[in-house]
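For the sake of transparency, this paper describes our internal protein records without simplification. Because each token names a local backbone shape, the row as a whole describes the fold. One such record is reproduced below, unchanged from the form in which we store it:
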Amino acid sequence: MSVGMSVGTRTAASARFVGTNGHEAERRAPHPFRCDGPGVIVTMLQPAADYQFRRDVIEAVPVASNGIGNEAPLGLREILRILRRRLWIIVLTTLAFSAAAFLFLLLATPRYTATATILIDPHRSNVVDSAGNRPPPPSNYDSDNAFVNSQVSLIQSDAVLQPVVDELDLAHDPEFGPHRSFIDLVLLPVKWLLTPARPRVPGQTADDIAKAQAINFLQRHRLTVKRELTTFLVDISVTSQDPSKAARIANAVVNAYFEELVRGKYDTNKIASSWFDKQVAQLKSKVLASERAVEEFRAANNLTLAQGATVVPGVTVSDQQLVDLNNKLIDAHAQTAEARAKFEQVQNLARSKGDPGALSDALSSPVITQLRTQYAQVAKNLAEASSKYGPQHPLVLNARAQLQETQRLINQEIQRILDGARQAYQIAKSREDALQQSLDHLKHITDETGKVRVRLRELQREADANRTLYESFLARYKETSAHQTLDMPDSRLVSKAEIPVSPSFPKTFLILAAALAGGLGLGCILAIAVDYCDRRVKSPRQAEELTHIPTLAALPVIGERELATRAIRGRQELSRYDRNAVDMLPAAMQPPLMRYVLEEPTSLFAESVRAVRLAIQRAARSAPVKSIMVSSSVDGEGKTTLAVNLAFSLAATGARTILVEGDLRNPEMSRSLCPSARVGGIEVALGRTRFEEALFVDRATGLAVLPSPPRRQSSGIGEFVFSSAMSNMLERLREHFDYVIIDAPPLVPLVDARALAELADRVIVAIRWDSTPQDVVTQALATLAPAVDRVLGTVLTRVDMQRLRFYDYYGGSAYMAPYSYLGQPRAGWTSS
């Protein structure tokens, strides 16, 4: 087999296999081709029939994971294309959601919502706190937030809702009775199987059960308690079918909440008061016991407390005596020192016979003052008399005698003062000594009772501590008792619930918008999911990415209306047809698409067939291309229509062309063109008949047809294609014709096509657009591993050109519209 050369290469995956000589060799598979322009395929591999290479080819063929190939990610443009080509899914889903929304709006019972707003103040002071001027606790965001959230939960608790149900008799209200939705009815058997039966509580009546159900329904479906952002404002909303009932229930919930707050505080204070009462009684007994122990210990140890207003509390008599004696001793010592100083001064003055006026006592004594005055007057008179009468004058002598007498009286008074000072000093000294002796004696007694006094102080401290604790608890007890009647709730009403005017449910605009958005969103998701999971071949580009083989053309689907018109013409020709004639069927009686390339030469169908023909002609420039096998993965993909139209197109160019029936087990081509054939290719190959007797020729184009009539027994037909007779016949046809077109059986279910592929020069695989799964195409190409170098390309059949533009950017009919019809009616090209 010759190896061609061309410009432009595709990357090929490497596959390793072990040869017969035990050495590892490397082959490249696939891609086994080089492409020189559209439709020109040049082989790059030599044929290999060993099993290992067949397995390498199967493993090397990639499988696209979605409709856009497995190499390109889902970009925005491709997503928009997917949504456009799956628009019907989006439309149906949106319509379904909208219809369900409209039905729900028609059947739903309107409900009204009434809202009351309360303010929860964690730092609100009560009457007792205000009277006592107790400072409020410090503010903390976390604690305040936790407090408000706790109150929100309290509002929804059974303790608050139970009085509401009782007050408004909601247990007997049909709206708050047992409700079961459609989903509950559907899941009822499952719940009955999975949920164990709850035994009835002893003493529980039907009325209790109805109240519990009403509370549960109000909590879950009718009551909403929501805090306004991070404020202390809380909205209490109640929904009901009756607007006035909704307002009544909301206001009742607020009142029940306030009552529960007051009741809770009262109960808390009552419990605290009871506890304080017990604690105060215990502490009182402790205080009495400790004080009794102190008094008994004092009495036993003669430690009597001192009495008096100036006595320090808790001081014993001995302690007080010790303090008093010490103070008296200090005073006595000072007095003794003062008396001694006076005595020594008077004694010194007496010894020196000095002026007695220097003494303080003399200065303060009226006798000495009088005597000194008298002494001064006598001295004055003596001086005057002496100067006037002389020293011996009687007056002078008399005055001198008075002066001496006055001096004697003064000295006598000073001696008396000296004796008084001496006596005062001695008395003070004696008193000081007596006090010192008493103090020493008392100190001795105090030292002997030291250990006893330590124990007394210990008992006294214990008694004082018990008394302090008792007084503190007694004050808190009185405060708690006052709280029982003066406590106020920590919340207040901001606005009461008013009767709502408009219903809060259902919200028409919101439901319709949600249905529309949900339908569009789910529709888009379903569209992408369906397209992603769609494993069918959708475009030439996808076919090339899947097979690594060029897609030669895309045959458009022909409209049912045009096919019906051609079928009517065939039935009209049937009346003039001779059933005994041994010839090809007239053109009008042949299936509508068999001669379409001739009857509509300007159509897209004919253009696509010409593209396949061009690929064959260009491939023939580099290597001989005589025999072309046309096959498909499975039956029903249009391979026979492609083979017949390709043969007619080649014959119309003047080339000697023969169309050979290769599907010997199901000769569809023979039934369509030559139903009257009695012999065919098998008889010619086996030499049972002459070639001219089995051959049919189309008079309009000169196309030769070698049919194979249907056979009742097909046991040996499967072996015929592997015989040398078949290969010899095809070799003879290659010698006499320019092109031998073989309509082969499908590749996957039968092995006949695999044998014919090894006898043909080129192989064309037909793939039905939007029908053949990708895995089937991959499996079909894997069966051609021994002849993989002969595969010319693939052809998409029955392509809806209007829908193809959603898969390929330039594959739709919109780009070919100016060249496709040339004045012919467009209706013939609409998709079926």
